[in-house]
Amino acid sequence: MTVEIIEKHQSFGGQQIKYRHDSATLKCEMTFSLFLPPETKTAMPLIWWLSGLTCTDDNFSQKGAFQAYAAKNHVAFVMPDTSPRGVADSDDWDLGQGASFYLNATQEPWQANYQMYDYLTQELPALVYSLLPNFSGKESIMGHSMGGHGALMIGLKNPQRFSAISAFAPISNPSQVPWGQKAFTAYLGTSVNTWRAWDATELLKEVGTKHAPILITQGTDDNFYQVQLNEQAFLAAAAASDKAISYRKEIGYDHSYYTIATFIEEHIAFHISYLK
Amino acid sequence: MTVEIIEKHQSFGGQQIKYRHDSATLKCEMTFSLFLPPETKTAMPLIWWLSGLTCTDDNFSQKGAFQAYAAKNHVAFVMPDTSPRGVADSDDWDLGQGASFYLNATQEPWQANYQMYDYLTQELPALVYSLLPNFSGKESIMGHSMGGHGALMIGLKNPQRFSAISAFAPISNPSQVPWGQKAFTAYLGTSVNTWRAWDATELLKEVGTKHAPILITQGTDDNFYQVQLNEQAFLAAAAASDKAISYRKEIGYDHSYYTIATFIEEHIAFHISYLK
Question: Fewest CB atoms less than 10 Å from the CB: which of A131, A193, A194, B142?
Fold first, then answer.
């Protein structure tokens, strides 16, 4: 398991580092980025960030404005890429590279490489843990849009591993919206029963209130809100007694990283309260 | 004088807006960006940001992480583009479009359009003032690399207009370094006497201590530091009695926007102290 540093920048006294490695799970070369806060003797937790359609690990690194708060709160951030690279792809921006939906594909031509769920839950964690000085063992997960769904889905499927989950503008019920239906049909086939294991709304019905605390931020001026990101089904799936889901609509904010930058301090504070 | 909004994002309760207009001075279509903090009844000052080689108005908007502090301090920011567009250019990344050095060119083929100094001191201010609700009339200027020099040069030439000047990794003595010599030769010709009016180190010799307070931040791990950004001549040009220049070397920081994001809060605090 070799990993190579391809970029390194000092940032708020910590380090913003970009790595390249050969992934055995995805059978291709991958990049990911890591923010390490300034070193102290205190053990440090880790937050996973999953980006949206068309992104790479660079979008959040460069536009997320999270480093000030990660440094202050002494937490590391890891930013994986959004899909395998240099392998199967489509001509559409919302399918294939940059659009993995973080699941394990079962259909051709995706099956050989699009095993992002296994990559994010097995191969990449082992690699990232080895790069963290003084890791506390505590992890949480957040993301944006497709990555907001990825955070909800992976967090709900792994309650022992993640102490908190948050999302900006998540595709919270992909089985029922155009982006998700297109991707799930391609990656998983037309049998919608197989989709349930990868849809956060279906997963929430299954786990009931047995999940990590969830915070969701959604801008009301988000172009994708009504068609792709509607929250009604997700919130309806929550048990009436579920006090661990907080859904915040923010007036006038859109789908861009300007919204993420505005509310990232709040999201980090939410995560930190459960990572101590 | 018409101006069109082509992008608008809510950010930290304020607005990050991108505009397009036809510049009479540059004889081409230009874009610029503006950050307006949340509206209050208090009059609001304006900070100019000038970017470096290859940049547009988007780099600082997206990667500068300044909006949190601009909103908190109730100050507007304007980000011009770095050159005329769609006109004379060269095949080199450090000459022509994205590389105007913010001066008025006298040589062909640049003279017709590359009048950035006039654009930034006459046409664009008039337009920007008209877009600011409740402008206090106080202005200051900052920038990065080529734009760091632009801030020093324009600030030193206009002591009545700018209350403070700051720069990240400025090309502080362009007449004496490869980037500056190449650009000045092309835009101004080979008569080096004509270069003095556009070189911050020469301008500092002229004005003595009669200039706005200056803050410069330079990372020690900046690839361009020794050859292009060396500060010795600029600091030597400062009068021995000049207490209004603060030069800070920051260990381990590089030429990237990660450095700008790390120290922008400090630069804004410096400007605000003179903009009140």
Answer: A193
- Please indicate whether residue B145 is annotated as part of the active site: yes
Enclosing domain of residue B196: 3-275
Residues B70-106: tens digit of each pLDDT: 999 999 999 999 999 999 999 999 999 999 999 999 9
Number of domains in chain B: 1
Residue A96: give its domain's CATH number: 3.40.50.1820
Hey, is B168 helix, strand or coil? strand
Quick check: B254 contacting A, CB < 8 Å?
yes
Interface mutation target, options A59, A62, A66, A223, chain B, most CBs of B under 10 Å: A62
B256 to A9: CB separation less than 8 angstroms, yes or no: yes
Q: Does B63 touch chain A (CB under 8 A)?
A: yes
Full DSSP string of B197-234: GG-HHHHHHHHTT-S--EEEEEETT-TTHHHH---HHH
Residue pLDDT, tens place only, A48-78: 999 999 999 999 999 999 999 999 999 999 9
B39 reaches A (C-beta below 8 A): no
On whether any CB of chain B is under 8 Å from the CB of A259, the answer is: yes
Q: B135-164, pLDDT tens digit by residue?
A: 999 999 999 999 999 999 999 999 999 999
For residue B240, the distance in angstroms to the closest alpha carbon of chain A comes to: 33
Q: What is the Cα–Cα distance from A102 to A83, expressed in whole angstroms? A: 7
**How would you class B40 by CB atoms within 10 Å of its CB: exposed for 0-12, middle for 13-18, buried for 19 or more?**
exposed
Dump strand ranges (E) for A24-134. Answer: 28-36, 44-50, 76-80
Q: B222 catalytic, yes or no?
A: yes
Here the ipTM equals 0.92
In tens, the pLDDT along A147-191 reads 999 999 999 999 999 999 999 999 999 999 999 999 999 999 999
Query: Which one-letter amino acid corresponds to residue B155?
Result: G
